[in-house]
Structure formats: C-alpha cells, structure tokens
From TrEMBL:
InterPro entries (alphabetical): HHH_9, NA-bd_OB-fold, Ribos_protein_bS1-like, RNaseH-like_sf, RuvA_2-like, S1_domain, Tex-like_dom_sf, Tex-like_HTH_dom_sf
Domain S1 motif span(s) in chain numbering: 750-780
Protein name stated in the entry: S1 motif domain-containing protein
UniProt-listed Pfam families: HHH_3, HHH_9, S1, Tex_N, Tex_YqgF
GO biological process, one term: translation
Superkingdom: Eukaryota
Recorded GO MF terms: mRNA binding; structural constituent of ribosome
C-alpha cells in the first residue's frame, strides 16, 4: 500500500499554492531544472515565485519524497506486527493520508516494539498483560491471584500493583485518545494564536505595497494572501470551537546554568561566555512567544557548556488528559489514576517536550538559514566599483599591514608588506615588495613614514583616480583616520583619492587555499589577503565565490546550524546570484563558471579547455560542441553565459572562420534572453522600431519601455522576454566612498546619521555609521511599514 497523497498535493498544502503551480514545480524539479533557470525562464509556469520561494519549494519537494519513504516503511512494519485485518487496514489508511512527519510518529507510536529492559517489557514478561487488558475493558480483576511467591517481582500484592502500573501506563500513552491529545497540544502551542497576527500583518503589507509601491503589479499575490487569511481565520475559529484549551497549564522554555559553568573563575578562558549569554541564564518564557533567534542563542550557549535548556511542561496538564473520562471499574480507580499519573510524567510530558524542542530548533534553524541566504545574496550582488585602480590595505599589528595595488581589471601591480617590528626605512625609492609601515595601537594616526608609504604606492597607479580599500579588522580605524587626514591635507594631489571599508571575512581562508596558491603563486601567503580585498571592490561576485559562504561572516548563529543543510541551501543561493548577474564566457574563471546554472566543475573546466584551444567564443551555439554539454545542460546554462563581441579584438582570422554560419555572433548573445526566445526578442525589437545594433546602448531600454502597453497584452513568454531586454539586473549599492571619518565623541543625542546595513540578523540590523562600531537597530524601533529595500545588506539607512 502506498500513500494516498501525491507530491503535488504535498507542495500545494505545504507552500499554500494553487494545484497547477504545484504540478509545474514538481515537473520542473523532476526534470532536473535548477532554481535560476526556473526563476528566469519558467516564471510564467510558477506564478512569478521568487528565488526564496523556489528554495523553500525544493526543500518541501525533498521532504515529500522522504515522507513517502518513511510512511511506506511504517506500513510494511504494520503488516508484520498487526494481525487483525480491520485494525491493520485502519492504521495503514491513516498513515497513508498523513502529510506530517511528527503525525506519522504519533500514529505509529502504539505499534512500536516494546524495548527490552524497559519497565513495560519486564511487566509483560511477568504476564501482567492480562491484568491491563481487563482493566482497560472496565472489568474487575483479582490481583491477589497473580501473587507468586516463587517470583521476586510478584511475591507481594504491592509488587503486582507496581508491575501493573508500569505496563498500564505504557498502554495509556499508546492509546488513540492520548496520541490525539498530544497532537492537539502540539498544534495548539505552535500555531494557535499566531495565525491571526500573521495573516492580518501580511494582508496589510500586501495591500500597502500593491497600492503604494507597485500599482501595476498583478493582483494574484494579493488574492492569494487574502484567501490564506480567510482560511486561517476559519481554521482558528473551528479549532477553538472544539473547546480545546489548557487552562492553568504553562508550557515554557527554561534554562539554568550548568555546574561546570558555575565553577568557572575570572581567570578561566571561558569565563567571558557567562557575561555573553547572561540574558539566557535562568531564562523562562512561554513557548508560544519565544523568538527563533532566542532558540539559536540557547542552542549556542548549550553547545558552549554554559547552560542547559528544555521545554518545560506543567504537570497540571494531567488535569486535561482525556483518559480521565475513561470508565474504569471502581475497584481499580486508584491503580488506574496512579498509572495515568505515571504515564503523563514518564511518557506524555517528555514526548511533548522533545517534540516541541525539535520543532522549535528546526524552525529556528530554517529562519537562520533564510537570514544567512538573504545576507549572502545581497553581498554577492554588490555593485562593483570600476574605472579606478585600487590600493588595498589589510591592517594588522602582529604581522603589520599588507598592501596590494591592482589595476582596473584586478591585475596585480604591486604587492607590499609592512612589518611593524622592523626598523623604519626612510628611502622609499625603488620600493616594490618590502618595507615598513609602522602601526602603533596607542596612536590615533599613522606616522609620517606610514603616510609616505601610502603616498608612494598611490603614485605608482596610472589612473588619475585611486580608491583605497581598507580592511575592517584590527587597526582599521587607525588607518581610516590616517587616510582621511592625508586626503584632508591634500597629500595625494594631483590624484583624486577616496577610501572605503571592505570586509576581511574569509580573506585569510582564501590566502591559505590551493586556489590562492595557484593564482598568486609568487606571493607570500601573508600578502594574498590584500589582493583579495582589492578585487572585492572591482568584481565582488568573482572574488566572493572563491570562498565558502560559511567563512564570510554574514550568518546568524551559523555554527549552530546543520552543516549539510546549510551548505546545500547556500550553494543554491550562490548559483542563483552568479546566474542572475551573468557570466562573460570568454573571461570567466573556473570558480565562477562552475556556479552557473546547469554547469559543474567538469563542464566548466571543459569550457576553459575549449577556450584555450579554439580561442574566444563567438556564439552561444558553440557551447553545444563542448564535451558534457548536451541539450539539457545547454538549455539551462545558455541564457546565463554572455558573449561580448569586439570587432577590433586580436583573435586570429583563421580561428574565426572555423565557425559555421549558424554559429556566427548574434548580438542577443550579450543579453539575458534565452536562445529559445530569440525570435520573440527580434519581433519585440521590430515593434520598438529598432534592431540588434541597439543592444548595449542606453537607448535600448528607453525604446522597449515605450511599447510596454503593447507587451502587456501579449502571452507570458513575450512579457518575460521583454523584461529581460528592457530591465537591468538589480544590484545592491556599491561600497560607500569616503574622504573623512566620524568620531564617536562627535555624535550628538538626537542626531540623524546615515549608515550602511552591514549584517541582517533575525532581531535587527547592524549598521555601519562610520564611527568604528556597528550600531544595532532593533526591529522594535523600526517605523511601521518600513520599505524592505533599506533593510537589505548594504542598503542605506538613516
């Protein structure tokens, strides 16, 4: 017997989407299509779902397959363990209809084998099963007939009662009404009371965004949200009308300090953790109102050995136990109630606590992954700063400051290490790769020699404008103040110099990697981080993909998350961002190519080999000649690989002539339009009164936007192609260029300052306001209906 529901139905229920979209999603996933391809070229099949929605859909699709396997395995075990045909079919039918993993466990609980060595197993071996079955049928049992002086565990009436209670409490816990009660408590605590606020909040936001921000948007999302709001309202009404409530019963999350932590002394290395987690020592909060980030903090404190925490269920819950209403022979009421109390304390309460903790942790982990994914996406799509040479300074006290000067395309011009322990050198002539850049932690400015070093390096730039990128590690503030002083003193004239702060996260990991050794073979490992910082300004996404996302320092409690689950979700985000921005196939590295939708390390390496052997690509059609790129892979990757043609390039003519007629350059190969839609794109250009020669011109978007009314009347494929041609790729704000710095003591109470969002956490935003410390803006202080665009990483906030 198989499950009675389909994956389509699971997706429809889990994601609250129409059946046709659920069916389309399942077909796309089964066909092996990746998120970037679906989001861009099959959006008309999925209701314009976002990439986050698709990521959740993939997780739901995987969960559906795992749930089917789990249910079918349980049904096979039921076949072997249950002899009664009617009971067997009934439980198998219930298992086949369930679309929740926890509910499966609840249904299967009564049919689990009693483990050897348990109290219930011991009582069953003693033959107490007969007593329990008669009691549950409300029959009178003479317990004295079971007293057996030859058996140590049954030689008195008290021991017979004890064994009876042990087994009867086990049977009570496995009864259908007990498991239903457990399920009701579980659902009540996790969902009831939150749906009202959730739905009203989302409905209000949808209406406001629709009419205030994007009045031309489709009404479908609004209708869907209203429909879900009504469904949730009636669900709550029906749920409450069932008179399920827990008066006087408190279920809370509680924590306490471990004995090991109490014994810590101020001189111990971990003593500071007590202060760090002081908000979660003796924590006590109703489980319905605990935030996800608080659960993650409790988990982190627990893993550090500072506290222990649990979901604590009030023992008064026994007053709501449905078995209290069971009819029992009056002679056995005392034993039955003792068994009920034992069952509640030994089985029901721990089950509720374990399941709630597991669900709370799972929900908190999912929220943390979503937060990490949001920050990662916004970091990867940071707008590059092009057109200037970049001097990167990686500050430090122990090993000194590392400097690297790169040109406009990221090629290394000069690398330079400054070591604070060396004697200052006054002669900077001929300086290439060694020297001294003295930093003293007690000083607020760089000394004259350090300033002369920076000035000498910027003078070696051939560009009239130079950007100084300063790492945000130790010593960063001193360098920022020193550079600001130099700019204010006109020490860089006639060059125009400004500086910005760049994150150092992951730079040391990259420096020690095999990739860095291959790219920067002749440079000492300590100097490579500065090169990475400089390139993060010029081409952020190409540099960041070289580093595993977990090393970028933008996650919330990332070290407390299941590593496999985190890596899987973040890989989807990286591939989505790389594909969304697009890749120049004639210039892209192996690291960036292997993150394109449809490609992997092998096919990316084959592209580079083909490029080295045959020269530049002149057409997307040439991809079909590469080993490993068949029709399916080509379909997925072609739209994300761009080919920019320059008539004056240096490619040998003989290599150009080898391409067939259909593989000649097509200007549409430099756009986001998929080759399957080229015919539609050409008809749109004709309708706009232009041709392919306008591609790459600022007039292209202007001409296409003029025919918007015509396009809106066309099929979805036309609208999608028009959007890909007319609308640019959305990128985040570039690093903010500065010429001065603020001081902490210069701030005034009530002063409004501008800052850049550096990290998005579940409880608020960390905003760099330029004083050396990030300001925490807690969600509780946000004005109502604050636009989400300024809540994003690198978004400006005032």
């Amino acid at each position: 017997m198989s499950v009675s529901w389909t994956i389509d139905e699971f997706l429809e229920a889990e994601l609250r989407i129409p059946s046709n979209i659920a069916r389309n999603l399942r077909n796309l996933f089964e066909s092996g299509y990746e998120v970037p391809f679906i989001a861009r070229y099959r959006s008309h099949l999925i209701g314009k779902a976002s990439t986050d929605d698709l990521r959740h859909a993939i997780e739901a699709y995987d969960n559906a397959k795992a749930l089917k396997t789990k249910a079918e395995k349980m049904m096979k075990q039921i076949d072997a363990r249950v002899k009664n045909v009617v009971e067997k079919e009934s439980i198998k039918r219930a298992l086949s209809m369930t679309m929740d993993s926890n509910e499966l466990d609840i249904l299967f609980e009564p049919f689990k084998k009693i483990k050897n060595g348990t109290l219930a197993n011991r009582a069953m071996q003693l033959g107490i099963d007969v007593i329990c079955q008669q009691m549950l049928r409300s029959e009178e049992v003479n317990l004295f007939t079971f007293v057996d002086s030859s058996k140590e565990d049954l030689n008195t009436i008290e021991k017979v009662e004890y064994q009876t209670i042990n087994l009867l409490s086990h049977y009570i816990h496995r009864m259908d009404i007990t498991q239903k009660f457990f399920k009701d408590v579980y659902v009540f605590l996790l969902y009831n009371g939150k749906l009202y606020f959730f739905c009203l909040h989302n409905i209000f936001l949808k209406i406001w965004h629709h009419f205030k921000l994007s009045s031309t948007e489709s009404l479908d999302p609004l209708i869907n949200c209203l429909f879900f709001g009504l469904w949730a309202f009636f669900y709550c009404r029906v749920f409450r009308s069932a008179n399920f409530h827990l008066p006087g019963v408190r279920i809370a999350v509680k924590s306490w300090v471990r004995k090991k932590a109490k014994a810590l002394k101020p001189s111990d290395a971990d003593f500071h953790l007590i202060e760090h987690f002081k908000a979660y020592i003796s924590y006590d909060k109703d489980v319905r109102f605990v935030k996800d980030f608080q659960i993650m903090a409790l988990e982190r404190a627990s893993s550090k050995g500072i506290i222990q925490w649990k979901v604590d269920v009030d023992s008064k819950i026994i007053q709501q136990h449905p078995c209290l209403d069971m009819h029992c022979h009056f002679a056995h009421r005392e034993i039955f109630h003792r068994a009920l109390e034992d069952s509640t304390n030994r089985f029901l309460i721990p089950s509720i606590e374990r399941n709630l903790r597991r669900r709370l942790c799972d929900r908190a982990e999912r929220s943390a992954i979503d937060c990490f994914a949001k920050n990662l996406r916004e970091l990867l799509i940071t707008e590059p700063l092009r057109g200037s040479d970049v001097l990167a300074i990686d500050p430090g006290f122990t090993h000194g400051c590392k400097c690297a000067l790169v040109d406009k395309i990221g090629a290394l011009l000069i690398f330079f290490q400054t070591i604070s322990s060396l004697v200052n050198c006054n002669d900077l002539s001929g300086l290439i790769d060694t020297g001294v850049f003295h930093l003293n932690g007690a000083k607020s400015e760089m000394d004259k020699y350090a300033q002369s070093v920076v000035k000498s390096l910027t003078s070696k730039s051939a560009s009239s404008q130079t950007i100084i990128a300063i790492g945000n590690g130790k010593g960063s503030r001193i360098v920022q103040i020193g550079i600001a002083h130099m700019i204010k003193s006109n020490m860089f004239l006639p060059k125009v110099v400004r500086f910005c702060v760049v994150s150092e996260c992951g730079a040391s990991v990259y420096s020690a990697s095999e990739l860095a050794a291959e790219e920067l073979r002749s440079i000492d490992i300590n100097l490579r981080s500065a090169v990475s910082l400089a390139r993060r300004i010029i081409d952020p996404i190409s540099e960041y993909v070289k580093i595993a996302p977990k090393h970028l320092g933008i996650g919330s409690y990332q070290h407390s998350i299941n590593e496999k689950r985190l890596d899987q979700m973040l890989d989807i985000v990286v591939r989505e961002c790389v594909s969304n921005i697009g890749v120049d196939i004639n210039a892209a590295s192996l690291q960036i190519l292997q993150k394109v939708s449809g490609l992997n390390k092998t096919t990316a390496a084959n592209i580079i080999k083909y490029r080295q052997k045959n020269g530049k690509f002149f057409s997307r059609e040439a991809l079909k000649d590469i080993t490993g790129i068949g029709p399916k892979v080509y379909e997925q990757c072609a739209g994300f690989l761009f080919i920019y043609f320059d008539a004056e390039d240096n490619e040998p003519p003989q290599k150009r002539r080898k391409f067939e007629k259909e593989k000649e350059y097509n200007p549409l190969d430099a756009t986001r339009v998929h080759p399957e839609s080229y015919s539609i794109a050409k008809r749109l250009l004709i309708e706009a009164g232009i041709d392919t020669s306008y591609i790459g011109s600022s007039l292209l978007s202007e001409k296409l936007l003029a025919i918007e009314d015509f396009v809106k009347k066309q099929p979805p494929e036309w609208i999608n192609t028009w959007e890909l041609l007319a609308k640019p790729v959305l990128v985040q704000n570039p690093p903010k260029l500065l010429s001065d710095v603020k001081q902490m003591d210069s701030l005034q109470i009530g002063e409004v300052v501008e800052g850049i969002v550096k990290n998005h956490a579940q409880f608020g935003l960390f905003v760099d306001i330029g004083v050396g410390f990030d300001a925490l803006v807690h969600y509780s202080t946000f004005p109502p209906l604050i636009p989400s665009v300024i809540l994003s990483l690198k978004g400006f906030f005032a």
